[in-house]
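Interim report to the steering committee. The following record documents the input for CocE/NonD family hydrolase (676 residues).
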Amino acid sequence: MRTVTSTPEEVTEHEHVWIPMSDGVRLAARIWRPVSSDDEPVPVILEYIPYRKRDLTALRDSMHHPYLAGHGYASVRVDLRGSGDSEGVLAGEYLERELTDGEEVLEWLAEQPWSNGRAGVMGISWGGFNALQLAARRPRGLDAIATLCSSDDRYADDVHYMGGCLLSDNLSWASTMFAYTSCPPDPEVVGPRWRDMWERRLRESGLWLEEWLTHQRRDGYWRHASVCEDYSDIECAVLAVSGWADGYSNAVFRMLANLDVPRQGLIGPWSHKYPHLGKPGPAIGFLQELVRWWDRWLKDDKDNGIMDEPMLRIFMQDSVPPSTFYTRRPGRWVGERTWPTDRFSSRSFPLARNHIRWNGDEECDETEETIESPLSLGQFAGKWCSYNAPPDLPYDQRQEDGGALVYDTPELTERCEILGAPEVGLEFSVDQPVAMVAVRLSDVAPDGRATRVSYGLLNLTHRHGHNAPAELEPGRRYHVTIPMNGVAQAFPVGHRIRLSVSTSYWPLAWPPPRPTFLTVYPGDSTLSLPTRPVDAPDEPRVSEFDEPEGTPPIATSRVKPGEQRWTVSHDLIDYESALDVVKDLGVVRFDDIDLDVTRRTVERYGWRENDFRSVYGDVQWEMGFQRGDWRVSTVTRTVLTSDSTEFHLHAQLDAYEGANRVLSRNWNVDIPRDHV
C-alpha cells in the first residue's frame, strides 16, 4: 500500500474525547478532522465498533481515518460501551442499548461546531452491521453508509448458523468476544477507576455462546436488528462491500435486489478485510473509492462519476489450483448495471448417476444413489469466514469427495463463467428424523485436482423455513432447494464442474445427532448455474481502480514473534482425529503509548472414529496488556460438546493483575438440541 504523507487538508487529531450518553455512561472516541473545520464545518464519518481504538485497531485506524479527514471529513472512531476505554458493559451483539447509543453519538457529533450536521457511517464486520442497523433507524442527518462484510439477516447469513446448521465459527467467534470483553480499559485514559470498570466487565459481560445456542431457529432474537425484516426502513444511500473468501458476500446481492435507495455493490477476491488491505490480492484503492462515495452523498458532488459505475462491480475469478493460502487471485473486474440483472439467468442441468447432463443429450441413468458420509469429511473445508491467516481457505477437494456423492460435467469445450448463487434441487430420502446436507461446487483440473468454488448447507428439518423446523419421516421422499454462496468464477476449457453431496461437513458445521444414510434420486435432481455471457458486446465497463493508499501507520514494534499453524491429525490406533488451529500474534508494542499487547488463541476441533457423540470444540484465548509495572491478563476457555439430545457448554475465565489471579469464573450449561 502506498503511504500518503500529505492530503488536500491539514489534519488535527483529538486522541481521546468523551461522548456522554443519556443514561450517564460516556463513550470513548478518537477524532481526526481538517484544521479548516474550525471555521468551515464539515460532514462527519463514524466508525462504531468494540475493538479498542487505542490499541487493537489503532494501526488500521491510523491508515484510513486521517486519510478521510485529509479529504474534508471529520472521521470519528468510537468504542462501544463496555469496550476499549468506554464506560459500561458490553453484554451482547447489536442490543437495543447499543443502537440507541449509536443514535446519540450521531446526535452529539451533529452538534459539534466543526460538524455541518451531515453524516455517514462506515465499518467492516461489526461496524458494517452497525452501519446498516443505524441506517434502518433513520437518524437525522445520516445521508449514506458504507457497510463491509456484514449481513442483512442475522440468522440466515451470519457467523452463527448457515442453512439452519450450527457453524463452528459460532463457537470461535463467541470465544473471541469472550476474550475481548474481558479486557481492561487503559489507566492512562480512565485513571484509577480502571480496576472497578474492569471487574464489572468481567462479572457482567456474560457468556454469549449460551444465548446464541439457546436460539437455534430464526426467532425474534435474530429478527432484531436484521434489516431484511423491512428493507424500506433504510432511506439513505448504501455502498455494500464484501469478498469472495469472506462469509458475507451473499448479503451484497440481497441488498442490491431489495433496497430501494441509491446503492452500489463491490465484491473482490478478498477475505474478511478492508479492500485497500485486501487479501488475497489484488487489493484496490478503496479509500479513494470511499472519498468518491462520501463526496457524492455528503457533499453533493454529483459529477464525480461514482454513480456512473455499474451497480455491481465484482472480480471474476479465474481458475486456480487448490490451496489453503493465496497471495493473489487471477481474474478481472466485471460489472452489471443492475442487480438482479436482465442480461442472463440461471440454467438448470439435470443430474444422472455420477454426472451432470451438461448438454442434455448424455445418457440418463436415473439409478438412485446412497451415501453416509464420515465425520472426517470437512477437514479441508477451511473456515466459514476466512481471515486469510492462518491458511483457512479450502484445500484439494479430492480428499473430501471420497465420502460424498459426486456428479461431474464432461470436459468443457467452451469457457464457462458464473455470477450469482448456484442452487441444487435435491430429491432425497433419509433414515433419520434430523439430518443435514452439504453441497459443494468444484473446479476440476485435467490432472484431477479439485478447487472448491462455492458450497451450501441445509438442515433438512428447516426445509419449510428457518422459523419452523420439522422432523423428517425416514424413508419418505422429499424435494428441497439448497442455495450455495454467490460467486463469480470462470471455468476454462478442458476443466470439469463437479457437484458433491454429503451428509456432514465437520468441523465447519456441527454434525447432526446421528449419522445419516442419504438416498438421492438423480432423475429428479438438478444443478442450476447462473451462467454469465462471456465477452458479450453489452458487457458494462468497470473503471480501473487506483492502487491502494493510506496515511502513515502508527509505529509498532515486535517484542515477541507470533506463530500460526493449521494442522489436521489422525491417530490410527485410537482413531482420534483433530483440526488444530493456532493464531498467535505474539507481543506487539504500540510505541506511541508504550503499551505491550499479547494475543494468542488455540482452537481444537476433535472427534473419534465416526462417533457423532464424540465431536467437540475447544477454544482458548490469552490476552495481555503491559506498561511498566502495570500488567494485566486474562485466560478464557470455551468447550462445546454434544450428545443426541443436548449441547454441553463449559467455559472458564481467569483474570490476573501481575502474577495474582483476581477473578475466576466457571460456567456449565446444558442446552437442548432444537432440530439441530
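DSSP finds eleven helices and 36 strands in the chain. The committee is asked to note this result when reviewing the revised timeline.
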